[in-house]
Each structure stands twice: as structure tokens, then as C-alpha cells.
Amino acid sequence: MTRETSGKPPRPSAYRAVCEGEAQPTRKHFAPAAERNAGPILAVLRDVVPETGRALEVASGTGQHVAAFAPAFPGIRWQPSDPDADARASIAAWIEDVGLNNVEAPIALDVLRPHWHTAVADGLDIVVCINLLHIAPREACVGLMAGAGRLLRAGGYLYLYGPYRRDGRHTAPSNAEFDRSLRARNPAWGVRDVEDVERTAAEHGFVLARLVEMPANNLSLLFRRAPKASARP
User: CA 162, CA 221: separation in Å to the nearest integer?
Assistant: First the structure.
């Protein structure tokens, strides 16, 4: 399969507005990749999301994913987030359009900021982060792991989705080309190594519980928070 365009490409220029009527754009944005990958991601999440609990989505982007996941898990209270105000407006529009009653209003979270996790109550069952790490510096991975390690209950899951290298090698030529294009735009970006992400996760109390090959040469990584992870200060 060909390399999938990121579900959350660099904001905001890569968004395509969904138009109502003939011409007037709304706040609700649409990413074709998010529409394509929501189903396969949902199939993986069904194996780990409990019947009841709380979930945080980091970097929710357009809002299409939480709009797809929340109806599938009615017993889960979802908290979407994004550092970009335009994205948060789109998320709110998707929530309103779908008529979801188990989703909180989107909040501003930036994993590059120290103590970002303090904006969310701990004891979460799952943290979901889709197509972020390759369009952010490596410090975003460190920040995500540190915060998620404090927010998740013991046994809770951190779910990551996107393109990754394995043993230092790209999994497809299209991923290699995608990586080159990302680094040309910003040298701090790029497709990450699964092993590097796994090492960072381990430093914050996570173990890689499952790796799933996904369509368009992407991977799902499910990290489980071990009981020995540090408690939230």
C-alpha cells in the first residue's frame, strides 16, 4: 500500500474545510486520512478499551477520531485536546454535529510544555495519540510519555498510531520518502524508530504490550502502564 498522508498534518494549512450549503465553510475540518484510518484504529482499540472509564486524546486534530470513537464506547468519557485553537474549534464542531454526550469540550494541551498533564485529572484508562510523533521534535515523545505515565492508572494503555521505522529501517519505500519530506520541512521532524519510542516509554513506566501492522504502512503501538510507574506529584 502507499504511504498514507498523516491524519493530523502540520496545522492549519493542510486542513480541508467541510462546507455546508454551496460555499460557506464551517469550523468543522476534514482530513481524508483520518476518515480512512478511523475504522482500523477502532478495531485495535476494541481489544483494550474497558466498558466504562475515562480517555484522553492528545493532539485530536480535526476531531474526526473522537467523533468516531465516542459512539463506539458509550461508557467512556472522552477528553479531546489540541494546542491549536483552530483545531479545537473543529473538534467542538464535530462533537456538536455528531451529537455526542460522552465527550468533554476540547482543551488546550501541548506535550512540549512542562507539567501539561496537570490540566487533566489522573486515573485515566487510556491515552490515545494518533499521527503526532513524526510531525514534532523528539521531545514531544518524551513529554507525552512523562505526562501519560502520570495520568494513566496502573494497567492503563497509551495508544500510538503512525509510521515508524523498525530496527533503524523504514517499513516501505513510501515511508522513506515521507520521512525525507518531513525532515526537509523541519529537521526536528521525522519517522521515529519503534525501539527508541519503546526505550523512552520504559523510562516512564510503560511496557510495549502489542504492536499491530496497520493499512498504509502504519503501526499501532499499545503501551501498558506498569504498576511500578511513578505516582503523580
Answer: 9
- How far is it, in rounded angstroms, from Cα 94 to Cα 68? 10
Asked whether 127 and 198 are in contact (CB, 8 A), the reply is no
Cα 147 from Cα 134, distance rounded (Å)? 18
Residues 6+ apart with CB under 8 A from 72: 42, 45, 46
Q: Are 140 and 134 in contact (CB under 8 A)?
A: no
**Residue 19: φ, ψ to 5°:** -105, 140
Residues 46-86 pLDDT 10s: 999 999 999 999 999 999 999 999 999 999 999 999 999 99
- What's the mean pLDDT when you consider all of the chain? 89
Task: Tell me the pTM.
Answer: 0.88
Nearest to 3 by CA among 187, 182, 173: 173
CB-based contact 122:151 (threshold 8 Å)? yes
